[in-house]
Amino acid sequence: MSSASPGYEPTPPSTSARKIPWWRKGWVVGLIALLVGVAIGSAGSNDTGNEPLAADVPEATTTATATVTETAPGASETVTEPASPPITKRVTQTVTKTAPAPPPVTETVQSTPEPEPEPDPEPDPEPDLTSGRENAIETAENYLDFGAFSRSGLIEQLKFEGFSTEDATFAVDSLNIDFNEQAAKAAKNYLDFSSFSRSGLIEQLIFEGYTREQAEYGVDTTGL
Which DSSP symbol is given to 64? Predict the structure, then answer.
């Protein structure tokens, strides 16, 4: 054992942490391992790319978090790596369905035959002009030459002369008499022999067998 020189003090060994190269630090190693794992996972997903995909593949999310803690003499260091972004794969399959065309609609048109026109009705046969009817017509014309008559009044006059109701009616209707004119003549004849009010003369003509319209027309012609 050598003796120390007078006045010399030995230097104690340094207690500070030895400096570690950057490539040997723990967080660097962890980051490299993380990147290698992500590369291997991507290669595995590429190998399955040729497999048929389902109509709708749910989203797949991969999240990796690396936490490396390194403790050195006299120091503590914690490194948290951010998670890599999630990897999302979505496959959408569109299925188009075409509805079958509707069957053609066929319309059946049935022709309806036109109805045949109905034949014209045969005219009523003219009644036989008997001698009794001829005499009734002549007698009715004579009465009309000397006086004014309503339809019912002239028929009753012919019946009074002995003609049948059928012959008397036939004779009056065959003459086509204007009974409005007959009512006017009758109203004038009444006023020539007597005085009447308007309503009284109308009622007298109605009593003679004229209709109310015919009686009013006849009275109107007199100026009442």
Answer: -
